[in-house]
Design goal:
Structural class: mainly beta
CATH topology: Lipocalin
Strand order of the largest sheet: 1-2-3-4-5-6-7-8-9-10
Number of helices: 0
Radius of gyration: 15 Å
Number of strands: 10
CATH superfamily: Calycin beta-barrel core domain
CATH class: Mainly Beta
Strand content: over 45%
Shape: globular
Amino acid sequence: FLNGELTAKGMFTERSGRVVKRFTVKMSGRWEGDNGVLDEHFQYSDGSTQRRVWRLKAFGQGRYSGTADDVIGEAAGESAGNAFRWGYTLALPVDGRVWNVTLDDWMYLIDERTILNRTAMSKFGLHLGDVTLVITKD
């Protein structure tokens, strides 16, 4: 699915459910064999922008790994049926500091053009909030 041009729209909600930030992501994915690159360009509701480039590797049997400049160590993922779970630690800038937050990312293939993504964000085991987004093929 993460091959070609994609667009995502989503939001971050704090643990109370209050929407903190909305965003749009333009993505471009390409694969050569078991190696992929996913180039993400974020546009946030406050006018800020961000870019993340994932370097992905497929290991077979639904297992994947990935790295990006703001990911601490390596992300690990596994797919089963229409679901994909992706876990990693992200170096997240917050008010002039950087927090290392844990992301538990679940993606569900709704149809051949749509993924529903729900991510729980935590630090020291405490739930900080959630990211919810819909990814569509352009």
